[in-house]
């Protein structure tokens, strides 16, 4: 009899209903009733995940931090300690600085073009519309294609003389085939291909969030005399806030590490005009064997992500019910 | 409903359809161009990039008859399935402990894994490469499988932990009364109950592994281990002048992913939206 009552007490204080941390009371109740070999159970169940994570996720990042302080070609142990020289070198290198600038442009583009389009399409597919399940299926499909496949396909679509772009440009009388070869357009072309692949993801996130909002809310607003736009602007949009903020976050983090697409589409060229941090890192690390310098670029990527995530968590996501990035809580 | 209202509604729905079809065309046309292009030769591609092939040239058959494509398909499959089994297994065990035990340091560990969500894979790739070389795992599928599993842990643990929390304590209580130990409960009760959540995280893990490019690119210098993304990229490099043939290869490499999407759409979308909502 004591046992069930303890369990139901625990359930009241259970993290499932009371995120994120169980109160100290819960722990005490657990503690009062030690299970046989409880520590052993914990160790056995945690060991595989912890071992993998520490060895293959955390350790490499620590190693990258260490290696970034050396001039090192990646063979043997790093010995030639040069302090922060790799970092000063990076910040005075126009390619690296260009990477930061291009990353910034890509983020801005995705905030003002990709996400609004995804949001509009989500609202559209939320309407009663015959065949909307099929539209949804098609719009999301590019997300499952790999970045490499997508990039190769678009290289061929725009390949000079043979591509679809060539046909379209003949039809339009403009030159679509050269978008990836022209330093002025290449970054936008890359952005369009990235959007082609990813807008469906954001659309799906918005759609799921929209469907979680009770219809009555916007209907009530319309009944009270709001126009459809006003109902969207003042009722629906604020309620989509958490999802929009997460989407912005995903988009920024995704841009910081953008590699596959750029590598296959342009290799970073022409003359670095579409290069990203990850591409520069790859070039130095795996092509020129300047592993120390490339590690410094990795660490900059890491710090950018970390600082952005912490800032975002503190300042922007604070008002949402719980931190979904460093998600400790079980809000569902 | 008056006649004008219903007419306005019809106009509205026609406009919505036009927008949807236009967006759909942007997605379908490039893929369709690829599918048709695989049936053309290069001459046709330059004179007639948009139209129907005439005559039909079967570049697909040539690729399918060659073992390389099948080999890469098999490698992708092997790596995806093994990574998924490992990540889901390890994450389920950890999520079980995180969801149902209170212990000192738990929140620290959960936060540690959660921070892993923010690590771009690209950040770790260099030291990972050095590490894998030191362990002799280059040109070994484990060199891709294990890191993929490790990087998949955060999202998998978060989703599973949430699901495990929804299972009432009474269920565990009953299992314990029936003589189940912790492991018995986990294996015989919790995992079967968690099948939908396990399907979701497995689908996410499979898609992630299937599309991974950077890691197999640096780990496999031996061509016989190449996965489809690496193979597609290399094929494009090798036959840069033979656009029709590369199109056929790209289209073939898309098919498994699209087929998988058709089957597992619900799990995939549920997993993505669920993980973002927290």
Strand/helix succession of chain A: HHHEEHHHHHHHHHHH
Order of helices and strands of chain B: HHHHHHHHHHHHH
Can you tell me the number of structural domains of chain B?
A: 2
**Fraction in helix of chain A:** 55-70%
Oligomer: heterodimer
Uncertain spans of chain A, ≥5 residues at pLDDT below 50?
1-34, 321-332
Q: What's the CATH topology name of the largest domain in chain B?
A: MetI-like fold
Return the CATH class of the largest domain in chain B: Mainly Alpha
Mean pLDDT of chain B: 88
Could you name the CATH homologous superfamily of the domain at 93-319 in chain A?
MetI-like
- Per CATH, the architecture of the domain at 93-319 in chain A is Orthogonal Bundle
The coarse overall form of chain B would be globular
Number of helical stretches of at least 4 residues of chain A: 14
Question: Roughly what is the average pLDDT of chain A, rounded to an integer?
Answer: 80
Question: Which stretches of chain B are poorly predicted, pLDDT < 50 over at least 5 residues?
Answer: none
Question: Which CATH first-tier class of the domain at 93-319 in chain A would you pick?
Answer: Mainly Alpha
Report the count of strand segments of chain A. 2
CATH topology of the domain at 93-319 in chain A: MetI-like fold
Proportion of strand residues of chain A: under 5%
What is the overall silhouette of chain A? globular
> How far is the first residue's CA from the last residue's CA of chain A?
32 Å
């Amino acid at each position: 009899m004591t046992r069930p009552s303890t369990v139901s007490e625990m359930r009241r204080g259970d993290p499932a209903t009371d995120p994120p941390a169980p109160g100290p009371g819960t722990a005490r109740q657990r503690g009062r009733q030690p299970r046989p070999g409880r520590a052993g159970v914990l160790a056995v169940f945690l060991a595989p995940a912890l071992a993998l994570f520490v060895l293959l996720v955390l350790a490499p990042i620590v190693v990258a931090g260490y290696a970034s302080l050396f001039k090192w070609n990646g063979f043997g142990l790093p010995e030639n300690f040069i302090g922060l020289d790799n970092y000063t070198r990076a910040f005075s290198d126009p390619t690296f600085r260009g990477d930061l600038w291009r990353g910034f442009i890509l983020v801005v583009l995705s905030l003002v073009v990709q996400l609004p389009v995804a949001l509009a399409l989500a609202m559209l597919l939320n309407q009663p519309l015959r065949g909307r399940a099929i539209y949804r299926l098609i719009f999301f499909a590019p997300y499952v294609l790999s970045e490499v496949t997508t990039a190769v396909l678009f290289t061929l679509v725009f390949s000079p003389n043979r591509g679809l772009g060539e046909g379209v440009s003949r039809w339009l009388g403009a030159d679509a085939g050269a978008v990836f070869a022209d330093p002025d357009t290449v970054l936008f072309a890359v952005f369009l291909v990235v959007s082609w692949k990813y807008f469906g993801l954001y659309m799906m996130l918005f759609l799921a969030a929209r469907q979680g909002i009770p219809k009555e809310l916007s209907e009530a607003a319309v009944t009270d005399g709001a126009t459809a736009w006003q109902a969207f602007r003042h009722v629906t949009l604020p309620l989509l806030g958490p999802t929009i903020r997460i989407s912005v976050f995903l988009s920024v983090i995704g841009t910081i590490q953008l590699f596959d697409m750029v590598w296959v589409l342009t290799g970073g060229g022409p003359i670095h005009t579409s290069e990203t941090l990850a591409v520069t890192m790859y070039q130095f690390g795996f092509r020129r064997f300047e592993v120390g310098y490339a590690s410094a670029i990795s660490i900059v990527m890491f710090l950018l992500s970390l600082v952005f995530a912490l800032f975002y968590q503190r300042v922007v996501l604070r008002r949402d019910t719980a931190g979904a990035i460093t998600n400790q809580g079980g809000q569902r | 409903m008056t006649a004008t209202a219903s007419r306005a509604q019809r106009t509205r729905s026609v406009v919505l359809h036009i927008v949807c079809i236009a967006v759909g065309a942007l997605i379908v046309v490039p893929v369709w161009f690829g599918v048709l292009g695989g049936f053309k030769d290069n001459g046709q591609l330059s004179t007639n990039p948009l139209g129907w092939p005439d005559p039909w040239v079967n570049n697909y058959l040539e690729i399918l008859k060659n073992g390389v494509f099948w080999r890469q398909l098999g490698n992708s499959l092997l790596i995806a399935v093994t990574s998924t089994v490992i990540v889901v297994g390890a994450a389920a065990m950890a999520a079980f402990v995180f969801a149902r035990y209170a212990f000192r340091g738990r929140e620290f560990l959960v936060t540690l894994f959660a921070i892993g969500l923010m690590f771009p894979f690209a950040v770790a790739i260099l030291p990972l490469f050095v590490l894998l070389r030191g362990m002799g795992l280059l040109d070994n599928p484990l060199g891709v499988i294990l890191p993929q599993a490790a990087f998949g842990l955060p999202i998998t643990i978060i989703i599973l932990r949430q699901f495990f929390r929804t299972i009432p304590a009474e269920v565990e209580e009953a299992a314990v009364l029936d003589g189940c130990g912790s492991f018995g409960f986990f294996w015989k009760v919790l995992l079967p109950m968690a099948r939908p959540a396990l399907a979701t995280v497995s689908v996410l893990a499979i898609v992630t592994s299937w599309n991974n490019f950077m890691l197999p690119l640096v780990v496999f210098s031996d061509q016989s281990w190449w996965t489809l993304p690496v193979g597609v990229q290399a094929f494009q490099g090798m036959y840069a002048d033979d656009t029709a043939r590369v199109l056929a290869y790209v289209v073939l490499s898309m098919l498994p992913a699209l087929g998988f999407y058709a089957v597992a759409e619900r799990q995939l979308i549920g997993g993505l939206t669920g993980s973002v909502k927290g």
